[in-house]
Amino acid sequence: MEYKGYVAKIEYDEDAEIFSGMVINTRDIITFQGESVGELRKAFEDSVEDYLSWCEEDGRKPDKPYSGKLNLRLNPETHQKAAIRAKLKGMSLNSYIEKAVEDELQEG
After folding, report:
1. Whole-model pTM?
2. Is the dihedral of CA 86, 90, 95, 96 positive or negative?
3. Which of 96, 71, 95 lies closest to 85, judged by CA?
4. How large is the average pLDDT for residues 1-14?
5. SS3 for 10?
């Protein structure tokens, strides 16, 4: 489920017969529940809206779903190989790694 860029992971509790959800692409904790898919979607959207309102009232910026910045640790050999391949292709190392990740995601 996705709303305004926030992505939720949904689980179903058979014993309680209720869906529970949690936003997974932010550091802040945003949760919600519902007994039906429609109720769950509304609770999700309401929770995101409540979160955004709370941030505004508190004078803080909402935690955005991923900034696009990633600190990546590689072993030195992999780092060197990637840097060489990137240069051979006329790309920056950042662009080369981004393309590699995008290619991998398309295969999934």
Report:
1. 0.65
2. negative
3. 96
4. 94
5. strand
